[in-house]
Design goal:
Blueprint (H helix, E strand, L loop, with lengths): L1 E2 L14 E4 L5 E5 L9 E7 L4 E4 L4 E10 L3 E6 L12 E5 L4 E6 L8 E9 L2 E12 L5 H4 L1 H16 L14 H11 L5 H8 L4 H19 L3 E12 L4 E10 L6 E5 L2 E2 L12 E6 L2 E7 L7 E7 L2 E8 L6 E3 L4 E4 L3 E8 L6 E5 L2 E2 L6 E5 L5 E6 L8 E7 L2 E10 L17 E3 L3 H77 L5 H23 L12 H14 L6 H4 L18 H9 L26 E4 L35 H12 L4 H6 L9 E3 L16 E3 L4 E4 L4 E7 L7 E4 L2 E3 L5 E6 L2 E6 L8 E7 L2 E10 L6 H8 L2 E4 L4 E6 L7 E6 L2 E2 L6 E6 L2 E6 L8 E9 L2 E12 L6 E9 L4 E6 L11 E8 L6 E5 L5 E4 L7 E10 L2 E2 L3 E2 L3 E2 L13 E5 L4 E4 L13 E8 L6 E2 L11 E4 L7 E10 L2 E5 L6 E2 L11 E8 L4 E6 ...
């Protein structure tokens, strides 16, 4: 049988680019760019796959070789369906040596027959080729045989999944495992198929995929009835707020469709509003539906399904692992450019711990490093190179448990480093003690292992109880079957014995001439038959139970011996199930009672005719437990009789033993049983003669059927071996813990036993067994196993060789290197580790590369750095970094470059400038050049002179007191710094005058520190201008509120020495203000500004929290707040005097105060916010007693106006616009909405073309068609939507031009006295549905043209009242919204008047009857007219007498309706509607009646909007 693949198109549909052929036939190349860059090429095949025809079950391989720059990416596809990559189905490989790309089918199946495509793609093009795979199906096809079963199974599963009540809900019952796994697979990702199948025990992967494909197809059809589009299916996720969410995007056909949520097939109630009481919540935002499960617990685990209108659209399996945090992550405060470490310890091993940073999932990258310990209990998150933007909340989520903590990044506030990038720090912030974490993790591991062992023991116990119960039930069943079989055998034996007795009696009566001896022999034979039958039915182990006097007796003996050779399965099977074997009683196992009877007589049921019954097949139901033989005796005097065997033997079928413990059967019992069987005649004797054996065997059971045994559970592991990473040259240790101290075990490496040696120590400490390798080398890598008492545990030692430095050389390298400016410095350090090793040198955090002044040397096992022409700025940290596949190591040293110091720094501070002394000081130099300052060198110049006097070195202190000065003179100083590297540039001071009075400036305004009823404590700051001398003290004055007099607080001769004072001369309840002045050698200076007024009373209590704090309004940049003043509770909270408002962005931890001074109003507007920013806001009440507790809003605030439904604000908006082709079309519409809406423009329901320009501004949107064409005609719709709602408005834009004239005009006379004008339509009629025609007329009596009809939407018009003898001419115009076309003119029309001589001829009078009923010559036609235009209907009627005409609309007469113009001229009846409206739509009927009859004609009028 052949199954050929279907050949499909060799190029991908919809591919754009330049198509070109390859040199290899059958390969199509698509080039994406017109010109390829130099050195680049499109992919191509140098060897393409070859078509295969292969037998089912064989291995099929396609190979391809591709070229291209850059290297192309290879993908495979198939024409029908998708390729499922699975180790048992399909594998994709690449061989670097041969550069072959292969796709392999290990065991090809008929379903794999198809046309396959190989795609080679890079950024410049794509190459594709196809290849066919044909499969020959041979032999028996399981797929075909099981096809019906699979289809039925699939249908059954579908019916179970689709079973619903009348209202679309599921039946209230738990889901079966089979239903559950298929519902999970229907919504699972393909990458999870293998894991799910493993969990639920599905082994036939190919069959599963086929069945799943059918179910998916059917479910998609069912979903399409309710859902237009479904996407973004997010399986259940746990976030750091103790909630789990299920997200899906779907567009419902009917927004009112009901949604149902199920957990394991049972409906779960949920609410669509935010509620703390409801556990499950549904939130809908547009097309997104988010189900939330709050307050997670272990009972929330299960399969969650979302149904729409009774159809399942999505399912997700939520598993809750039994894990919690033993140690939670803690807050970390890190400096800028320092690493931060978060650590946590779990109660159970897990790989599925998620790290979140500011609510975003984190993964391993250059910024974040996530590590897990070998026991999977300690999890760490390293945030590298912390910057201010990295600050925020970080969380760890394990199962349904989570914990979070802040990362605070402190910025360097040093003014000198402001604007510069901070130096990268090598230290790590955060992280607990590693040893403590290891201890906690070890405790958790032991607890976890203990719980696991308890569960295993409980499971074993339950399994043992279950097996014991099954064994007891089995034994009871076997005993019942045995009893039934024995009873049945006894009944059969009795019946046959009775029949034999009757036969003997008949023979005895018939034999009149028989002797008395013969009668005695016959009686003896009957007795022997009975004994033989009994022993044949009850023989324990095939004893010699042989009947006497029958042919069957010999056979019975044979059967007894022969039966011992068979293996019997159970007691009940051997009783009465071998009927007539050998024609006599058989004694194997239990023997056959029926056969014994037959053998005894020979003429019985089976003895007659010398044919025995066939042996039944026996099946073992349990273990064989033979009974013990108590005795065995043969009767003497039995005669030998010839016998035959005629029964056929069938092979007995055996079952496997059931796994229960068997009783021990003594070997002597078996031997006794065998001896008993041998006492009968064997198989050979069965064919000739047998010996009488009239005895029987008795049976007795010793002990129970099943021996009760107690098994030792043996040794088990409390803690197994863990994988170990060892470093070459260091020690490594493996450790495990067993349950007993007396346990001895063996260690193995890669299957070979190992013993203690010089390099390896094997030790035992109680229940702990350890293996220690003193110095690890490569040869110690491998799999290690510890085995004890049949139990074993394994682990791997992975030998790593990370880069390392020799200890002595590393210590020497750490010593700082000091050189002088312009000299060179060298650093050299050896290393060792596995190559390749990446070596990097850094100077002050910046990586160094080879330059003119930088020389890098890399030799084997050593690297050096040489820096030449060094400058002072080159000083800093020198770092050598090594990295290989096993790790990274760093060595740090310091480089110090010495240079001359910089000049001293100002400003100069004058300590004293008296008549005899000038005392001043300055600041040290910014950079001392790396050396210690030896001296400051001073020169002095008296102002007015040209010479400088050298004062000389004054020591390393930056101060000087000059006592050699003259009163009233001014002096200037030059200061230089002296070090071992030289002298700095000089700093020249300002002029300093000696001995002139200079009063100090005003101090700062006094501040009230505390206030009591008998004392007010003040403090102030000294003045910035001291007057050139030291401040000696201060004067303090006070003034009562409302008074103009200041009174000095301190005595006139006692100045205040300190910078504060306690004023006790106050009156309780009075309000005071204070001022202070400074005193120096010259006297008292100016007073400071007065302090704030303060009451002399005991301190007030701070106020409480503000009440009813809320947001009253908000915009994109402002936020309006209001509150109520806090309550005044005497003795607890005093009245508030003012308020502060503080705000904090959501991403920051610092509160910023909005108002520097307290406000007295209970409302405030915060300005300068960032649009759509998230802010936390709080208000603080304050009074003289201090600030109260802050009142914070319950939730963050978005800087956005209050939600406003979109609304169009234009008073009048036109909905129709006509534009001449070629001109631009512009439409502007204004609206209001909050928050910012999304504006969408559509043309006839689809996105607008690219040529249309959309301009959106705040509150308005404009549509612009630059150069309009007729194809731009359509209905343009604007949709304005935000999170509140959406609004839309449509405008019809018609792009047209002056129409082309109609074709030739023809005239015709259908009815006498009328003329019908017809014309060929204008070419624009099909493109413009508003195009109509106008007809004008001119006759020979007039020279002017006048309009006779307008707004004609067909191509024909009938004119009445044509006068014979006049010449008529007609013109037809095409008209639309832009104007009229050129006219088309008809030929002249003339009805000649017949002018003959007037004669009167009196004809003969004849009676002529012209009467006739009404008849329509021209009926009414269907009409369709635009709204607002006129409509003209006409028809021609004849009849005699003249019929009466009635017009009706919807069966209502119009003859009296003045809105319609009705005329009847010479049989031409017309109806004119001047302005057609929607109310004119309907059926119009004209009825003509006369005495001869009646006629009707009707039409329909449709009004187009």
């Amino acid at each position: 049988m052949w199954k050929r693949s279907k050949v499909t198109d060799q190029t991908a549909a919809g591919q754009t680019g330049i198509k070109k052929k390859s040199k290899v036939p059958g390969v199509m190349i698509t080039q994406f760019l017109e010109e390829l860059p130099e050195g680049k090429s499109t992919p191509d095949f140098t060897r393409k796959p070859i078509a295969l025809t292969i037998q089912e079950g064989k291995c099929a391989v396609f190979k391809a070789i591709v070229v291209g720059t850059p290297t192309p990416t290879i993908t495979w596809g198939r024409a029908n369906g998708e390729i499922h990559f699975h180790p048992d189905m399909c594998l994709q490989k690449y061989d670097e040596a041969s550069r072959e790309h292969t796709i392999e089918f290990p065991k090809v199946a008929p379903e794999d027959a198809d046309t396959y495509k190989c795609f080679a793609t890079n950024e410049y093009g794509r190459a594709v080729c196809t290849v066919a795979l044909n499969v020959i199906a041979v032999g028996f096809s399981k797929t075909k045989e099981l096809q019906k079963t699979q289809v039925e199974d699939t249908k059954d599963i579908r019916q179970k999944l689709k079973k619903r009540k009348e209202d679309g809900t599921r039946e209230e019952k738990k889901m079966e495992p089979e239903e559950k796994v298929w519902e999970i697979l229907l919504s699972a990702d393909k990458k999870d198929y293998e894991r799910i199948c493993g969990e639920y025990g599905i082994t036939d992967f190919r069959r599963m995929l086929k069945k799943l494909s059918e179910m998916k197809k059917e479910r998609e059809e069912e979903i399409a009835e309710f859902v237009t589009h479904i996407s973004t299916l997010k399986h259940i996720e746990v976030n750091d707020s103790d909630c789990a969410t299920i997200e899906l995007d779907m567009d419902l056909k009917d927004p009112t469709s009901k949604l149902f949520l199920y957990k394991d097939g049972v409906m779960v109630p949920f609410t669509t509003e935010e509620s703390e009481s409801m556990k499950h919540n549904l939130k809908q935002v547009g097309k997104k539906y988010v189900f939330t499960i709050k307050n997670l617990g272990s009972e929330d685990a299960g399969l969650y399904s979302v149904d729409v209108g009774g159809i399942n659209v999505f399912s997700t399996d939520f598993k809750v692992p039994e894990v919690d945090f033993a140690v939670k992550i803690q807050e970390v405060i890190a400096e800028e450019r320092q690493d931060a470490l978060f650590q946590c310890v779990l109660t159970a091993p897990t790989d599925d711990l998620k790290w979140l940073g500011k609510s975003a999932p984190l993964s391993n990258s250059e910024k974040f490093e996530i590590t897990v310990s070998e026991d999977k209990l300690i999890h760490k998150l390293m945030v590298r190179d912390c910057m201010p933007l990295d600050a925020g909340i970080y969380a760890a989520v394990a199962g349904i448990k989570s914990c979070n903590a802040w990362l605070v990044v402190e910025v360097d506030k040093d003014a000198a480093s402001k604007g510069k990038k901070a130096t990268r720090k090598t230290t790590t912030a955060g992280g607990a003690n590693e040893q403590d974490l290891m201890t906690i993790a070890k405790e958790q591991q032991e607890m976890y292992q203990k719980k696991l062992d308890e569960k295993i023991e409980m499971a074993k116990k339950a399994q043992a109880e279950r097996e014991a119960a099954e064994a007891v039930a089995k034994v009871e069943g076997e005993a019942a079957k045995k009893a039934a079989a024995e009873e049945k055998a006894a009944a059969k034996a009795a019946a046959k014995a009775k029949a034999a007795a009757k036969a003997k009696a008949k023979r005895a009566a018939a034999a009149e001439d028989a002797a008395a001896g013969k009668k005695k022999a016959a009686a003896a034979a009957a007795a022997g038959a009975g004994a033989g039958g009994a022993d044949g039915g009850k023989g324990a182990d095939g004893g010699a139970a042989v009947g006497v006097g029958g042919e069957g007796g010999t056979a019975a003996g044979a059967g007894g011996a022969e039966g011992l050779g068979e293996e019997y399965d159970s007691f009940e099977d051997s009783d009465g199930e071998i009927e007539g074997e050998g024609g006599g009683g058989v004694g194997g196992g239990e023997g056959a009672g029926d056969g014994g009877v037959g053998g005894g007589e020979g003429d019985g049921e089976e003895g007659e005719g010398r044919q025995g019954g066939k042996r039944k097949k026996r099946v073992r139901d349990g273990p064989l437990v033979p009974d013990t033989v108590i005795g065995d005796k043969n009767d003497e005097g039995t005669t030998n009789q010839p016998g035959e065997t005629s029964g056929k033997k069938e092979k007995r079928q055996k079952k496997k033993d059931v796994a229960v413990e068997e009783a021990v059967v003594a070997k002597s019992n078996r031997e006794a049983s065998g001896a008993s069987a041998d006492s009968g005649t064997g198989p050979a004797a069965g064919r000739h003669e047998s010996t009488a054996a009239g005895g029987h065997s008795a049976r007795a059971r010793h002990g129970p059927l099943m021996v009760e045994t107690v098994s030792d559970p043996g040794v088990h592991f409390h803690a197994g071996l863990s994988d170990c990473k060892a470093i070459i040259g260091e020690a490594a240790e493996l450790e495990c813990k067993v349950s007993r101290e007396d346990c001895e075990g063996l260690w193995y490496k890669d299957g070979e036993e190992i013993q203690s040696s010089e390099d390896i120590t094997i030790s035992k400490d109680g229940t702990f067994h350890r293996l220690k390798i003193h110095k690890v080398t490569e040869e110690y890598a491998g799999k290690y196993k510890f085995e004890a008492d049949g139990r074993k545990t394994e682990s791997l030692i992975v030998v790593e060789d990370p880069p390392r430095f020799p200890a002595e050389e590393l210590e020497a390298f750490k010593n700082p290197v000091t050189v002088k400016k312009g000299h060179k410095a060298s650093f050299k350090l050896p290393y060792f580790g596995r190559e390749p090793i990446k070596i990097q040198w850094y100077l002050d955090g910046e990586e160094l590369s080879e330059e003119a002044t930088i020389k890098l040397d890399y030799s084997e096992g050593c690297s050096s750095l040489l820096l030449t022409k060094l400058q002072r700025k080159d000083s800093g940290e020198v770092k050598m970094k090594l990295k290989n596949e096993f790790g990274t190591v760093e060595a740090i040293s310091q480089l110090i470059v010495l240079d001359k110091p910089t000049p001293p720094m100002g400003p100069l501070e004058i300590v004293e400038a008296s008549s005899s002394t000038i005392d001043f000081k300055w600041r040290p130099p910014k950079d001392s050049g790396g050396c210690k300052i030896d001296n400051y060198i001073l020169d002095r110049q008296q102002v007015g002179r040209n010479t400088w006097k050298k004062v000389g070195p004054i020591g390393p202190e930056p101060k000087y007191k000059d006592s050699d000065v003259d009163h009233g003179r001014r002096y200037c100083y030059r200061i230089r710094v002296e070090t071992e590297m030289g002298t700095s540039e000089l700093m020249e001071t300002e002029d300093i005058q000696a001995g002139t009075k200079a009063y100090p400036g005003a101090p700062s305004s006094p501040k009230v520190v505390t206030a009591f009823k008998d004392c007010i404590n003040l403090s102030w700051s000294p003045p910035s201008e001291t007057g050139g001398t030291n401040i000696l003290g201060y004067n303090l004055e006070k003034r009562k509120k409302g008074s103009n007099l200041w009174g000095q607080v301190n005595a006139p001769d006692e100045m205040i020495k300190g910078k504060g004072c306690g004023v006790k001369d106050v009156v309780e309840g009075m309000e005071y203000e204070f001022r202070v002045s400074a005193i120096n050698n010259s006297g008292a200076g100016e007073f400071s500004t007065p302090s704030e007024f303060v009451f002399a009373r005991d301190p007030k209590k701070p106020p409480g929290k503000v009440i009813d704090f809320k947001v009253t309004d908000s915009t994109y940049t402002t936020l309006s707040l209001s509150w109520t003043k806090p309550k005044d509770i005497e003795g607890v909270e005093d009245e508030a005097k003012g308020y502060f408002v503080e705000i904090r962005p959501a991403e920051s931890t610092d509160w910023d105060r909005c108002n520097s001074n307290a406000i007295t109003m209970t409302s405030y507007t915060v300005k300068g916010l960032k649009s759509m920013g998230m802010y936390w806001v709080r208000a603080i009440a304050t009074n003289d007693g201090g600030e109260g507790e802050a009142q914070e809003l319950d939730n963050y605030i978005l800087a956005t106006p209050p939600p406003v439904r979109p609304r169009f604000t234009d008073v009048k908006i036109k909905s129709f616009m006509v534009v001449r082709a070629g001109n631009s079309a512009r439409f502007t519409i204004n609206f209001e909405a909050s928050p910012w809406p999304e504006v969408i423009w559509l043309k006839d329901g689809s996105p607008v073309p690219k040529k249309v320009t959309i301009s959106n501004t705040e509150g308005s949107s404009q549509l612009l068609i630059p150069s309009s064409e007729r194809s731009d005609t359509g209905i343009y719709t604007i949709i304005v939507k935000n999170i509140v709602a959406q609004e839309s408005f449509s405008i019809e834009i018609r792009v047209t031009d002056e129409p082309k004239p109609p074709g030739p005009v023809e005239t015709d006379e259908n009815v006498p006295g009328t003329v019908t004008i017809s014309w060929t339509p204008s070419p624009d009629e099909k493109r413009d549905d508003r195009l109509h025609y106008m007809v004008t007329k001119r006759d020979s009596s007039k020279s002017t043209w006048h309009t006779i009809a307008d707004h004609i939407f067909n191509n024909r018009f009938t004119l009445c009242n044509i006068m014979p003898g006049r010449e008529y001419q007609f013109r037809v115009y095409a008209k639309n919204d832009m104007g009229s076309s050129k006219h088309s003119e008809s030929p002249k029309w003339l009805i000649p008047s017949k002018r003959a001589k007037f004669t009167v001829t009196m004809p003969e009078t004849k009676a002529c009857d012209l009467q006739c009923p009404p008849k329509f010559l021209l009926p009414l036609k269907m009409h369709t007219a635009p709204q607002g235009y006129e409509c003209y209907m006409s028809c021609a009627i004849k009849g005699d007498p003249t019929p009466h005409v009635t017009w009706l609309r919807n069966n209502i007469s119009l003859n009296t309706n003045t809105n319609y113009f009705i005329s009847n001229t010479c049989g031409v009846c017309s109806l004119l509607i001047l302005r057609v409206g929607p109310k004119d739509t309907g059926e119009y009927k004209i009825v003509a009646e006369n005495s001869m009859g009646r006629a009707e004609c009707s039409t329909k009028l449709t009004v187009r909007e």
